[in-house]
Amino acid sequence: MRKLLSICLFLLLAHVITVKSLNPTLDDDVLGLIVFKADLQDPDGKLASWNEDDDSPCKWKGVRCNPRSNRVSDLVLDGFGLSGKMGRGLMQLKFLTKLSLAKNNLTGSIGVNLAQLASLRVIDLSGNGFSGPVPSNFFEQCGSLRSISLANNKFSGKIPDSLASCSSLGTLNFSSNQFSGLLPSGIWSLHGLRSLDLSDNLLEGEIPKEIEGLYNLREIRLRKNQFTGEVPDEIGACALLRSVDLSENSFSGALPTTLQQLSLCNNLNFHSNLFTGEVTEWIGELGRLQTVDLSNNMFSGAVPNAIGNILSLKALNISNNGFSGSLPASMVNCQNIESLDVSRNSLTGFLPTWVFQIGLQNILFSENKLTGSIYGALTSSIDISHQNLQVLDISHNALSGEIPSEIGSFTSLRFLNISKNALMGEIPETIGKLKALDFLDLSENQLNGSIPHEIGGATSLKDLILSRNSLDGNIPSSIGTCSSLTSLILSRNNLSGQIPVAMAKLSDLEYVDLSFNKLTGTLPKPLANLVHLVSFNVSHNQLQGELPAGAFFNTISPSSVAGNPTLCGAAVNKSCPAVLPKPIVLNPNSTGTDPETIPPTLTHKRILLSISALIAIGAAAFIVIGIIFITVLNLRVRSSMSRSAAAIPLSGGDFSSSPTTDTNSGKLVMFSGDPDFSTGAHALLNKDCELGRGGFGAVYRTVLGDGRSVAIKKLTVSSLVKSQEDFEREVKKLGKIHHPNLVALEGYYWTPSLQLLIYEFVSGGNLYKHLHEGEDEDGNRSSLTWNERFNIILGIAKSMAHLHQLNIIHYNLKSSNVLIDGLGEPKVADFGLARLLPMLDRYVLSSKIQSALGYMAPEFACKTVKITEKCDVYGFGVLVLEIVTGRRPVEYMEDDVVILCDMVRGALEEGRVDECIDQRLQGKFPAEEVIPVMKLGLICTSQVPSNRPDMAEVINILGLIKCPSSESQEEEESG
Ligand SMILES: *[C@@H]1O[C@H](CO)[C@@H](O)[C@H](O)[C@H]1NC(C)=O
Ligand SMILES: *[C@@H]1O[C@H](CO)[C@@H](O)[C@H](O)[C@H]1NC(C)=O
Ligand SMILES: *[C@@H]1O[C@H](CO)[C@@H](O)[C@H](O)[C@H]1NC(C)=O
User: Fold this and answer.
1) Does the predicted TM-score (pTM) go above 0.85?
2) CA distances for 589 relative to 581, 601, 926, 933, angstroms
3) pLDDT, tens only, 8-43
4) Quick one: which of 12, 206, 512, 917 has the fewest CB in 10 Å?
C-alpha cells in the first residue's frame, strides 16, 4: 500500500516537472511581459521584479495568474509611474482577463488590438496620455468585454462603430477625451450597459428614442459635450437610472414628464443647457432625489409645490433661470437639505423664514426681487442650537430693515453677502463674533453709523466690502487684527479721521479702495510695506502730506490719489517741499551738524541776534522792575482774596442766568447759563472791591455754589475799553471760541469800575511751573516725558492755529499762560485780551501785554515792520525750545545773559545738540523727533516774520515729525 502511494507521488511530481519544462505557452507569458516591459520607462523601478530568467511571471509585481492554469490573468499596474508606449508584447498574454494601466504616463496611439484577446473582460487605460483615434476594428472581437475605460486621455476622432459588437459591455467610460462626431448608433443596443460616461468630449448629435434600449442603465453622463435636441420621452424606459447628467450641452425644449418614471433616481443634473418651459409637479414623484441642478437654463414659471415631497433632497440649484413667484412653503419639509441656490431668478415675496429653520448650510438668494425685512426671517431661527449656515447670499434684492444683531449667532458663517439691498441702521457689533467669516459684503445699502470696532473680531476675513453706504466715523484701528484681509473696499461713505497705521499690518492686502470719503491726515508711511498691493485707491478724500515712498507707492496711478488737494508726491505731480517751510530738515539721520541742514535764514543770525539780544536785555531791565511790582501786587491780591472768599455765602439762590442789570451790582453773564453762579458770586461781585492790580489782571480761584471751581480774572489794565457795549461785544466773541486747547471763557461781570472774566478752571497748573518749578518733597523737579512734551507742543500749535484762523492774535504766548489739565492736555489762556484795549499800539503791546521776557518777537522793536500773527509764531518757537530744553527763554548767569534760542542755535551748529536737550529726559527720547522739533522751534523764531511758518504748517510739520511707528505703539498701549 505504502509502495503504491510513493509510486503515485513520484508519477505526480514527474508529471509536474515535465509540464513545467515542456510547456512553451508558459514562456509566452514571460516573453510577452518582458517585451511589454522593454517598451516602457520605469523611473520608479516598479517592474524590477520582472526578470526574464524567471520560469514563471506569477510572482512578479502587478501580475496575477490563474491558480489552475498558471497563466497570467490580471495585469494591474495602476499608478506605477510608467511612461512609453503600450507594445505588442501584451498580445502574447492569451489568457489575460483584466488589463489595468490606469494613472500612468503612457503615450502614443493604441496600435494593438487588445479586444482580440479572447478572454479580456476589463480594460482600464484611464489617466494616461494616449492619443489619436481608436482603430476602427478595435472592438471587432470584444464579445467578452465587460468594462472599458479610456477616460482622461487624449483620444480623438469618432468612437468606432465596432463598439456595437461588445454585446456584454456593462461599463463604458470614455470621459475627458477629445472624441468628436456622432455616437455610433449601435451604442443604444448595448442592452447590458449599466454605466455610460461620455462626458467632457466634443460629441454631438441628439439622444435618439432608441435610448429605451438601455433599460439596464444605472448612470448616464453626457456632461460637457455638444449634444443638441430634446430629451426623448423614451428616457423614461431606463427605469433603473440613479443618476442623469446632461449638463453643459445644448439640449433644448422642455424636460419630458416621463422623467417621473425614474423613481430610483437620486441625481438630476441639467445645468447649463437651453431648456425652457416649466418644471411641473412630476418632479415630486422622484422621491429619492438628493441633488437637483437645473441652473443656467431658461426654465420659467413657479417652483412646483411638489418639491416639498422630496424629503431626501440635499441640494437644489435652480439659479439663473426665469422662475417666478415665491418659493413653495412646502419646502419646510425638506429637512435634509443643505444647499439651496435660487439666485438670479425673478422670485418675489418675503425672504421665507423656513430657510433659516431647516439647518441649511448654503442659502443663495441673490438677484431676485425679494422684499421685506430680513429681521423676522433671521431672528426666527436663533433658538436652533445647531447652526450650520456657512454661506448666506441675499444680495441684490429689495430687502429692507436693519441687520439684526442675531447674525452674530451664525457662528459657522464663512460668506455673508447682503449687498445691493435697501438695508438701514448700523452694522451690528456682533459681526465680530463671526470668527469663520472670510467674505463680508454689505455694500450698496443705506447703512449708517460707524464701522464697529468689533469688526476686528472677525479674524478670518479676507474680503471686507462696505462701499456705497453712509458710514461715518473712523476706520477702526482694530482692522489690524483681520490679518488675512486681501480686499478692503470702503469707498463712497462718509468715513473721516486718519487711515489707521494698523492697516500696514495687513500684509496680504491686495485691493484697497477708500476713495470718496472724508479721510484726513497723512498716509501712514508703513503702508509701503504692503508688498502684495495691486490697487490702493484713496482718491477724493482730504488726505495731506507726502505719499509713502517705496514699493507699490512708487508706481501708484495718479487717479488713485487724485482729489486730495494737499497730498503731495510724484504721483500727484506736486512736490512736497513746497508744503513744508523751506528750512526744516526732517532727515532723522541728521544731527544738525551738516551745514546744509541749517536753515539759510540763520546764516544772518549774528547781526539779527544782536538786535534780539539788545531787545531782550532792554526788556529784562523792564521786567525786573515789573516782577517786583507784580510780587507786591500778588501779596495784596492774596490777602484780599482770602477776605472776599470768606464773604461769599455759598448757599444757592435764584440768580438768573440771563443778563441782569442792576445799577448797584453791575451785570453778570454766564455764557453757559449756569444758574449756580449764584448769590455767592453776587455777593462777591457786589462788594465792588478791588482785588488787586497788575499787568493785565490778577486771577484767583473761587468755588461756585455747585462745588465747581472757576478762575476769575479781574482786569486791571487802566486803558480798557470804556463803553460797556464794546466790552460786551468783544467778550461775547471770545466766549464763543471753543477749542480743546484753549481755556474757555465762561462769563463776565461788568461795572464801570470793575470787569471780571470768568474762566474754566484748569487743575494742573501752568507749564512754567511744570518746566521750571515743579519740585516734589525730595527736591526733584517733576519731569514731563517726551511724549507729554510733544503733545503739549502740538496742543499749543493747534490752539494757535485755531485763533489765527479766527484772526485773533494772542500777543502774549508764554509758558505761564499755558495751563495743563488733569489729562496732561495743554490749554492756552489769556487769548484775545488785546481786543479789550481801545488801541493796539506797540507801547501797550510790549509793555502791558507782551510782558514776558524772551518771547517777544523782534519786530516789536522795529517800527517799520507790521506786527502780524507771526509774532505768536515767534513766541511759540521760544516755547518749543523751552519745552525741549527745560530752560527759561532768558537766563541770568553771574555775568552773562543766556538767550535760549541763540544757545540752541549755536549748539545745533556745533553739533552739541544733545547738551541742550532737557537732562530730565535722561536720554529717553527719540532723537529723530526731538531734533526736528528743535529745528522747528528755531524756524519759528526766525528774525524775519515771513520766514516763520504759519501755525497750520507747524501742525503739518509736527505730524510729519511724529514717527508713525511710535504713534502705533501708543495706539496699542492705549487700545
Ligand atoms: C509624462 O511624460 C512626459 C514625456 O515623457 C513628461 O514630460 C512628463 O513630465 C511625464 N509626466 C509625469 C506625471 O510623469
Ligand atoms: C470615468 O472615469 C473617470 C476617470 O477615471 C472617473 O472620474 C469617472 O467617475 C468615471 N465615470 C463613471 C461613471 O464611473
Ligand atoms: C538713515 O541711515 C540709514 C542707515 O545709515 C539708511 O539706511 C537710511 O536710508 C538713512 N535715511 C535717510 C532718510 O537718509
Assistant:
1) no
2) 19, 22, 11, 14
3) 444 444 444 444 444 545 568 998 999 999 999 999
4) 12
